[in-house]
Amino acid sequence: MAIRFSQLGHSIAACGRNDDALRQLEGDLTAGSHLHAVDVTDGPGITEWAGSLNAVGWVPDLLINNAGVINRQ
User: Fold this and answer.
1) pTM score
2) How many helices (H) and strands (E) does the chain have?
């Protein structure tokens, strides 16, 4: 999905746990994308990442949340 949005001219900001996978994705996106390795269960890490986007004026037009947490009982 990110690749197609990028092909259509949209800027992509994404985070994920796997830095290697993000670097591979980055190679498939147009210039100007902002990818960062952070686990969505790391609240302070997410806050820092979102703040870094805000600091450079990146305000999303569309947010796609594709994360999940499994609570083992």
Assistant:
1) 0.73
2) 3, 2
